[in-house]
């Protein structure tokens, strides 16, 4: 394997226009360089994994993609058109949904209420406009349809409080919420962390269903077997830079770890 730092290995990309593209992003924190000219592309129906050691810039990259950080330099494009996110709400309004490790679900609320958390619908007519009554029946019906569309067999009853669900079921609720409103891209931060084998497999199946529905998914994970099971391409971060973009066909897990840690270049 051989490459220069300025020209990291780049696996072949799908044809067409990327749904989301980052060009040469730079983000600094005083004298600390979080991102140093990082580029990234994700295409329709693609699962792009992002891997890297602690401090590699994974979280900084995701925050720049989702409006939590504003890059010092570089450009973001959505469907080929330049965009500028001034905050997470801008990214969400553009169709980019993120599920973070802490899930941000409300345990006391039921599944349907969590799916519509922050996007609650009012009843039509005077009951909604004047008395601000929630359309609970409509939201539950749509939540059932969304769960069925995603094939989440573990969430049969959308009226169950989330606090009564297992860790895997809670993750499914968070992913379902992202999928329901993430019309462009769904970003998952360590989606199988702290889950058992069975629950992890359910989450991985859910990622594959999103791919089948042509929804681009970006997955940040330390779990190499899971990365190689679901990813089409793998973006490797090292010391704030992109070290390589590889595929499960072009490189092994050992190769990926070696690139990630600097033990090898591509």
Automatic annotation (TrEMBL):
Alphabetically ordered keywords of this record: ATP-binding, Hydrolase, Nucleotide-binding
Assigned EC number: 3.6.3.17
SMART domains, sorted: AAA
Database matches in InterPro entries: AAA+_ATPase (IPR003593), ABC_carbohydrate_import_ATPase (IPR050107), ABC_transporter-like_ATP-bd (IPR003439), ABC_transporter-like_CS (IPR017871), P-loop_NTPase (IPR027417)
Enzyme class (EC, first level): hydrolase
Record-linked CDD domains: ABC_Carb_Monos_I (cd03216)
Residue span(s) of domain ABC transporter: 20-264
SUPFAM superfamilies: P-loop containing nucleoside triphosphate hydrolases
Example of a GO MF term: ATP hydrolysis activity
Pfam families: ABC_tran
Protein name: Ribose import ATP-binding protein RbsA
Source organism of the structure: Microbacterium hydrocarbonoxydans
